[in-house]
Amino acid sequence: MSVETMIEEQLSEVPKQTSFLDYVIRGSGGKQKCTRRYIGLLAAWVLFSAIRWGLPAYSHGFTAAGRATLAVVVWASILWVTEAVPSGVTGITIPAMLLVSGALHGVANALAGFTQQAVFLALSAFIFAAVMRLSGLDKKLALFILRKLRVRTVTGASVAMYLTNCVLALIVPGAVSRSAALLPVVRGMEEFLDSSATSKRAMKGLVIQGLVYAPMISGLLLLTSGLPNLIITSIIGKDTGVSIGYGMWAEMNWVYLLMFIPTMLWMAWMFKTGKARFDLQALVSTDKVVTGSDGDTRTNRQGRSVNYQQTIIVVIFAAVAVGWAVIHSIKPGFVGLFGVFLLMLPGLIPYSWKEVLENTMWNAFLLLGGALSMTLAMSSSGLGKFLASQFAPLVAGQKWYVILIAIMVATEVLRLGMLSNVAAIALIAPILVPLGAKLGVNPIAFTLLVANIDTFAYVLPTQISAAVIAYGTETFSIRDYAKAGAVSLGIAILFSVVIVVPWYAIVGFPIWSSAGVHLIR
Cys-Cys with 155: which of 198, 273, 453, 504 at CB 3.0–4.6 Å? Predict the structure, then answer.
């Protein structure tokens, strides 16, 4: 064979250089995803520009800062739904957008979302989840729950997580804390499923229900099950003189627990959770030798027994959970950070800090901080109150159910740009009591119904801190969450009108009558 022939054959084996377009399409995950992402990117910037420089600013509430904030909210929402760029990148860019657009002034104000205690609560939860995953403890906790409750399918696991949340709601105040506590358990359940497309699809439903829907629904069980409950009752008592105590709250709102049934049926249909079954023998019999990033080898026990290292983790995590339940002088986020400090004391766990960091959900952390910065901008710019006030004239004089549904939908539109149920209630609730009286409906029933529906802001994971924790598992996409959440929100609104409204009337608060408001205890 001649030298020329050999060179030609070697050159023919060299991959041909692709075009720049092919390079971009391949890097975007295929033609369909590439098209969606670039359309989303274009739409986000076009609408941002149109709102920021096209809409006029009015003196009566809609300020220039509010207009700029609205532009950033629309920009971020489109990028999150279309996944044009990684969600964490959008989150960390939000502070810069708030500064550039004029929504906020000063770097400290723009980055304020990253200093909120909710961010540190999520971070501590992510770190504990990373350690539990490294130790295999997440699998053992999951196995314990699955076996004790005789769970066989992912649908059954969803019910188990709901019941667990209801029990935790009696002692752990705050849906975010409950979601953080159960994060390792839900992640551990994934290890008992195979790698089929059916199991992966079902796991999406389990994570969303177990870490988002169940904590939020159970948060309405008791007055102390969620901080928004205390804010709502405080405002109602101040504005109407009606004191809603512990017993009255439970009597009025226990009915919301039934809403898990239609929501679960919808999620079971969408994600086919009944078709995915657990193999509870998969990780029970063997121990594995693993090699850490420091080069040391160690045994990672996968059986039912808990070794002393896992016992240490359980004790520290249990102490943190007790802190969340009983220590009210220190925010839950900082209680979690103290737990992380204890966890990383020399010699307590055999994992290096580098290993822990490699298993921590940093994408969700960046997403959470950016979303909170945007929430603070909506409050400080007055955009939230302005948008809320614009809907009242549209429904004045309508039937009570038209008023109720319209304001519920309007509230959820407003919530697209707000993370934190607590912040949203603090912003919206003071408007609801006088608005209900102005519209001729029972202000107490109206305020409770609209404020409680805010609990079920399921369209974007950036609307609820617990949803950001769930999103950190990278089990589902924002598009998956939005598809499931839009219908789940519709179920919540329908349930409120058909079930909760009649129940409120039975206990003495008919929404269709503003007269005769009385304390039933």
Answer: 273
pLDDT at 420 over 80: no
Q: Which of 216, 248, 252, 238 is nearest to 430 (CA)?
A: 238
State the Cα–Cα distance between residues 434 and 244, nearest whole angstrom. Answer: 18
Do 136 and 90 lie in one domain? The reply is no
Instruction: Please state, in angstroms and rounded to a whole number, the distance separating the CA atoms of residues 269 and 195.
Output: 20
**């109720």: which residue's tokens?**
404
Is residue 476 domain-shared with residue 383, that is, in the same domain?
yes
Give the model confidence (pLDDT) of 338-373 as tens digits: 888 998 888 888 888 888 888 787 877 787 788 778
Residues 17-38 have pLDDT tens digits of 556 556 556 655 566 677 778 8
Burial class, 302, CB count within 10 angstroms (exposed 0-12 / middle 13-18 / buried 19+)? middle
Let me know the angle formed at the C-alpha of 463 by 458 and 469, rounded to the nearest 5 degrees. 90
Taking the CB of residue 25, how many other CB atoms lie within 10 A of it?
Answer: 17
Residue 153 forms beta bridges with which residues? 277
Q: Which residue has the higher pLDDT, 253 or 514?
A: 253
Q: Are residues 248 and 345 in the same domain?
A: yes
> Rounded to 5 degrees, what are φ and ψ at 301?
-80, 125
Nearest to 353, CA basis, from 361, 365, 345: 345
pLDDT > 70? residue 211: yes
DSSP designation for 15: P
pTM of the model: 0.69
pLDDT of residue 202: 92
Phi and psi at residue 289, to the nearest 5°: -95, 120
How confident is the model at residue 287, as a pLDDT? 43
**Total structural domains within the chain:** 3
